[in-house]
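Form 12-C: Joint structure prediction
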Amino acid sequence: MRPVRFNLNPKEANISEAISMGKAPDGVGGDGFFATQLSSVVGLARKNSLWPLPFATSCCGIEFMATMASHYDLARFGSERVGFSPRQCDLLMVMGTIAKKMAPVLRQVYLQMAEPRWVIAVGACASSGGIFDTYSVLQGIDQVIPVDVYVPGCPPRPEAIIDGFMKIQDLVGQESIRRRNSEKYRDLLNSYGIQ
Amino acid sequence: MALSNEYIQEKLVEKFNDQVFQFSTDSGILSFESSAEINLKVLQFLYDESSLGFTFLTDLCGVNYPDHSGAELVVVYHLHNFIENIRIRYSISVPEAKPDVFTATKLFESANWMERETYDFFGINFIGHPNLKRILNVDEMDYFPLRKEFPLEDQTRIDKDDEMFGRG
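Section 2 - Result
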């Protein structure tokens, strides 16, 4: 017998229960082919391989570390490779309090990212300044860069961060491939002073 | 014989007569004040005098008393004597209209950044400082945040409920 104190009567693992199949996009399929919209395929590929840039400033950064660790594993969602270079990443995850002095730096990092890029504001401080309503804290990063998803919490639990990430995945999967060239997107960037 | 607060007070009064005043002892630390013009003389005396030997500047900070007209801004120096383990507090006050104070950087190197911080938050102008510019806040800021007249909260928020913050 194994010298253990726990798990003395383990349940038999059933492999068919443990795997779930993702939903295929709408299209016409047949023997060896599947025809669908280009944007669905591209969206599917992009959403399951987002490379995040963790812009972790304070406590929410610690929660992110927990999310990337083995228990809550963000790598399951395709973001195995986190990069710290904006040139190589798709998703800017701003986690933590951004001071007014840091705002131009954050903007510069955002500007250096290549399209398509998404931004997720993790935590109360990044979304709205949090409990720090003072002269030195930026009251929400959406004052300097456009944000796609806000994750509330102080700090949000890793499950909440994963939920925000999954919402980003939904956005990515359904995005039209001409969105980044559209008038509306250009107007959005202009409202932030970004050409 | 350990240095005592009474001895320090005696020596100061002996040297400066009535230019130093308001002696008090708060939690064991002797505090006194003087006018702003002689601050360097007092600091130098406390540094050089062998029996006193206050050669370490622990802290240099500012206080704003908006009600004391003519002495709204106060600079507080905390000095420490390592050998006897004695601390004293020395404060000088300046009016808001002309907040000029001579810099202590030549005597204490650490006063350099501490005076920049005091300038950043209170607007006290240190004459003779090698590099008096903002240290913690954004460079473009044109007001002094820790003065009582400026609100703590960022004024760009429009969604805060006054009732919940005790202002309703």
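Section 3 - Comments
The mean pLDDT of chain B is 87. Residues 21 and 115 of chain B are 24 Å apart (CA to CA).
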